[in-house]
Amino acid sequence: MAVKPLEDRVLVKPIEKENRTESGLYLPESSKEKPIQGEVVAIGPGKLLDNGQRAKPSVKKGDRVVYGKYAGTEVEIKGDKHLILRETELLGVIG
């Protein structure tokens, strides 16, 4: 099943943090925080402007992005968790 985001939406696969600290201690699943970084998997065609043209998306497939902790809608695709977010919910691109 392929998902093609609509309008200015972006499909992001969250990047899970390591379950081990720098000093080598393993963290229990319950202490992990929700990921706030991910990789762009697909993007929509862009927001439809008043003049009938589409705004060019500011991210591209493969970009690593940062988003708000509670942003977007979680969906499961082929057993993997993904997020569908509006482009405005993205906080930045990791260079």
List keywords for this structure.
10 Kd Chaperonin, Protein Cpn10, Chain O, 0% helix, 6 strands, single chain, mainly beta, elongated, 95 residues, six-stranded antiparallel sheet
Task: Describe this structure as you would to a colleague.
There is one protein chain. With 95 residues, the protein is mostly beta strands. The chain has one domain (9-94): GroES chaperonin (10 Kd Chaperonin, Protein Cpn10, Chain O, Roll). The protein has strands at residues 9-14, 37-43, 64-67, 73-77, 80-86, 90-94. It has a 6-stranded antiparallel β-sheet, with no helix packed on it. The two termini are 30 Å apart. It is elongated. The model has no long low-confidence stretch (mean pLDDT 85).
Q: Classify the secondary structure makeup into a structural class.
A: mainly beta
State the CATH architecture: Roll
Number of DSSP-assigned strands? 6
Order of helices and strands: EEEEEE
Strand order of the largest sheet: 4-5-1-2-3-6
Number of domains: 1
What is the helix tally? Answer: 0
The helical percent reads under 10%
CATH topology assignment: 10 Kd Chaperonin, Protein Cpn10, Chain O
Shape: elongated
Unreliable stretches (pLDDT < 50, length at least 5) are none
Q: What characterizes the major β-sheet?
A: 6 strands, antiparallel
Rg: 15 Å
| Annotated CATH homologous superfamily | GroES chaperonin
Strand content: 35-45%
Highest-level CATH class: Mainly Beta
Euclidean distance between termini CA atoms: 30 Å
Return the average pLDDT rounded to an integer. Answer: 85
